[in-house]
Design a protein that fits this description.
By secondary structure, the protein is an alpha+beta fold. 18% of the residues lie in helices and 31% in strands. A six-stranded mixed β-sheet has the order 1-4-5-6-3-2. The two termini are 21 Å apart.
C-alpha cells in the first residue's frame, strides 16, 4: 500500500495476517508488505508498520529480501523487508515474535512459502 512521498505503510490487522507476513527463516527476520510498487532485491526501503492490537506506527528501515511480482496461488503481490539490526528493527522483530508465540514453527502456508 503506497504511502505519501515514497513511504510505504503496512497495517497488519490480525494474527493470521501477521503469521502469513512474517519470514522467520530470514536472518534477523523479515515482514511481507503487500504492494504493487516495483522493488528490486537489495533495495533499501522505509515502511511504517502497524501490528495487530496496536495503533502505533513503527518506522522500519530495511532491505528487500523477497519479491512476489504478481498475485498468484493466493499470495499477494509485494515484497519482504528484512528487519534492521538497530533498536527499532529488534523492537519490531521482538513484538512480532511475541504476538506469534508458539506459531512461528507452524506448517501453515504464508504469503511467501
Amino acid at each position: 500500500m503506497p504511502g505519501i512521498g515514497g513511504i510505504l505503510t503496512c497495517n497488519i490487522e490480525d494474527e493470521a495476517t501477521l503469521y502469513a507476513s512474517y519470514l522467520p527463516f530470514v536472518n534477523n527476520g523479515a515482514i511481507f508488505v503487500p504492494s504493487d510498487r516495483p522493488q528490486k532485491l537489495g533495495d533499501e526501503v522505509f515502511v511504517a508498520i502497524t501490528l495487530p492490537g496496536s495503533s502505533e506506527r513503527m518506522p522500519l528501515n530495511g532491505k528487500v529480501v523477497w519479491i512476489n511480482y504478481k498475485s498468484q496461488s493466493g499470495r499477494p503481490a509485494g515484497f519482504a523487508v528484512q528487519f534492521g539490526q538497530d533498536a527499532v528493527g529488534l523492537k519490531v522483530k521482538n513484538e512480532v515474535e511475541r504476538l506469534l508465540a508458539g506459531k512461528v514453527d507452524s506448517t501453515q502456508a504464508t504469503f511467501t512459502m
